[in-house]
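[User] Could I get a sequence and structure tokens?

[Assistant]
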Amino acid sequence: MSSYQTAPYTHFHELIDTWTKHAQSIETQAKNLSEKARVLGTPSDTPEIRTRLDEDERRLHNLATKTKTVLKELADEMIKRKKELSRNDLDMVTKVRTAMNNALKNYEDVITSISKRRQQFQPTTNDTLIDLGNANLSEDDIHQRLQLQQQMKISNNLLVQQNEEQFAIEEQVQLVQADVIEINHMMRDIGAIVSEQSPIIANVEQNVSAANDHIIAGNQQLLGASRHQKKYRKKLCWLLLIFLVIALIVAIVIIIKLKA
């Protein structure tokens, strides 16, 4: 609430704060995810690592989903209280939009980069296929053929796993792209409200400024009139005093003549 000391803390400001936190969280989580993804294709690359990356990606997607809910509510709130929005409110929206745009770009870049690394560094098996050639089926040959069948089964399972992972990667990228597109659409709607309200607020501010100028000019005129009135009263007092002095002198002269 400290950010809005000059104005009441409303639901609008609460949504702005939540939006700001989401933008910061998306930025932070995307950065952490990028750091963790560096192990892909290294000796430390394991199925457990990839599972944890999947979980982190899902958390990031869930955060993006929550952000969409906040933005929808914020857009509704801005439409509802259009006439109450101040210049400071619009500036806050613009500032958070910029932060969210940067966070979304990093979010999309990180997921795209991870998907490419996943495709580039597919997990492989250390088992090697045994080539039987044209050897006769001795007991050893049968044993080797059984080994071959087992290895082929492992390879097939690995291929299925790789296909499933590839599908999951493509699905995750599509989710991210959908998140980014939808959030961008919502932010454009909010930006349209800001653009619509900016001239109105500018006009109101101009009218308020003009009114203040008129008030100041009026006060100055009143002050000037008050000064003129004081000067007029002062002059009037002097004139009355002079008149009284003259009248007194005339009266004295008349009295002296009458006595004489």
